Amino acid sequence: MPPPFTGGNHYFPAQSAAVALPPGYEDAWDREHVRLPCSPHARCVDRTPLWPVLCNALDPAPTDLGGLVTALRTIRTAVGGRWGLERIRDLVERVMSEGKHSIYRS
To answer: Cβ of 53: how many Cβ atoms within 10 Å?
Structure first.
């Protein structure tokens, strides 16, 4: 397994569905804190942990727009989301520069 990425107060296992938290970490899950997807409290609609679903949906990283949409559909289903994905191509075209979005063209 690759070494973890650490930065500031953040600790994320690189390419791993396992959640490794630093000693003394307190997972605040309230209105005053950001809800991290790697949190043990982050769950899918079926109450299974969300982090492995995210890791599996995005590994390997999508290399085209179709792969990105497929990953987003997997995540949407897992969390019970109802957002649409019809406009993702327009968003990629509008927001990203030519060099950055070319990998997402189908």
So the answer is: 21
CA 40 to chain centroid: 15
CB burial of 19-30 (b: ≥16 within 10 Å; e: otherwise) equals: beeeeeeeeeee
3-state secondary structure the chain: CCCCEEECCEEECCCCCCCCCCCCCCCCCCCCCCCCCCCCCCECCCCCEHHHHHHHHCCCCCCCHHHHHHHHHHHHHHHCCCCCCCCHHHHHHHHCCHHHHHHHCC
Average pLDDT by stretches of 10, the chain with 106 residues: 42 49 73 82 91 91 87 94 84 66 51
Contact between 51 and 37 under an 8 Å Cβ cutoff? The reply is: yes
pTM of this prediction?
0.62
